[in-house]
Amino acid sequence: MSNPGLLNELVAALRCLPGVGPKSAQRMAFHLLQRDRDAGRHLARVMAEAMERIGRCRQCRTLSEHALCATCASPKRDASLLCVVEQPSDIAAIEQATDYRGLYFVLGGRLSPLDGIGPEELHLDLLRHRLHEGGVSEAILAISPTVEGSATAHYITGIAEGSPVRITRIAHGVPLGGELELVDGGTLAHAFAGRTHL
Amino acid sequence: MSNPGLLNELVAALRCLPGVGPKSAQRMAFHLLQRDRDAGRHLARVMAEAMERIGRCRQCRTLSEHALCATCASPKRDASLLCVVEQPSDIAAIEQATDYRGLYFVLGGRLSPLDGIGPEELHLDLLRHRLHEGGVSEAILAISPTVEGSATAHYITGIAEGSPVRITRIAHGVPLGGELELVDGGTLAHAFAGRTHL
Ligand SMILES: [Zn+2]
Ligand SMILES: [Zn+2]
C-alpha cells in the first residue's frame, strides 16, 4: 500500500516480539483492533510501565520492579541455599518444576570472552561477596551444560574457594547443549534432585 | 510466587494476543525486558495510539486512521470494480496475491442470525447504496464459501437487484469451509481470476 499508516506501523512494531513473523503480527493487530481494544490498551499501558519500572534486584539480579525482589525479600525462603542460574526465566522454570525453597543468583549469561562476556558482565564479584559473607551453605549451579556453561561453573567454583560454601551442580537429565528453560519440568526436577558435588 | 508484580502483569497482558500461551508470553516479556526495551517502549506507544486513532473508513469500512482509507482515496484505483470481503485482513491477502486494482467493501463478518449478525451489523444498507448510486459496474464477492458466506452472497445478490451492477463471486481453489485469509496466495490469485457470474 502507498501510505504505510498507523496500522502497518503496529504490525511492524509487533515483530519485535520473539517468534512473531509478518503473518502473525498482522493477525495480532487485526485481532486487537477488531475484537479487543480494551485488552490492547491495557497491554500497551502495562508494557510501557514495565519497560520503565522493572530493573534488577540488587541482591540476586533477577528482573524486579523493587530494589529487592519478592523472593529475596521473603522470610519463608531458605537463605542458606543459593541457586545460580543464567536467566530470570530459569527461576520461573525451577519454581514451577521443583520444590526448591532457597534463594537465587542470576548471572545474566555465560562466560564468553569472544562475545565480550567476562566476569564483570556476569556480576561475579557480587556472587563472590555473597558466597564469602556467610549464611550460604550450598550453592547449586543450575547452568546449561554447554562449553561456556561449564567454564562458568568452573570459574564460580574458583571464586568460592576459601568460603564454607559447598558447590553443587544439577545433573542428570538436562540434555547436553540444551537451554535450561526449554527442558520439561519432570526432567528439570530430576536433575535438581540428582545434583552432584563439584 | 506470592506477589504477582508488574512482570507477571506483563506476561498476563501479553496473552491477549492470539496464539500466545503462557510460555511464549513469558518469553516475550523476558526478551523485551532483557534485550530490547526500546522496541518494547515503541510497541507500547504505537499500540496505544493505534487503539485510539484507528477507526473505520466511511466508504469501505476497512480499518483506517483517516475518515477515508488510502485505497478509497487513491485516484489510481478503478472505482468501477468493487470487491466485497468479510474482513480487513482479506484485503491484505488479495492485495498481496492478485493484481486487483479496484475498490473494496468490508462486511465485518457473515450473516449469522443465531449470533445476532444481521444485515445491519454488516452495514448492507451502505453496500446497497453503493451498488445503486452508479459508478460500480462489477461487484466481486470474495466471501468464504461456508453456509453463512453463501447466505451472505445470496443476500447481496438480492440487494443488487435493479442496479446495473454485475455480481460475480471468486471461485475455484478456495477450499470449502476455509477461511479466506488462510488460503495461500497462488490459490487465491487463481480463484480471483476464475470468478464466475452469480
Ligand atoms: Zn532478588
Ligand atoms: Zn476505504
From TrEMBL, chains A, B:
Record keywords, A-Z: DNA damage, DNA recombination, DNA repair, Metal-binding, Zinc, Zinc-finger
Q: Which Pfam families match?
A: RecR_C (PF21175), RecR_HhH (PF21176), RecR_ZnF (PF02132), Toprim_4 (PF13662)
Q: Which domain of life is it from?
A: Bacteria
**Presence of the UniProt keyword Zinc-finger in the record:** yes
Q: Is-annotated flag, keyword Zinc? A: yes
* GO MF annotations, alphabetized: DNA binding; zinc ion binding
Listed under GO biological process in this entry are: DNA recombination; DNA repair
Identify its protein family.
Belongs to the RecR family.
Specify the protein name.
Recombination protein RecR
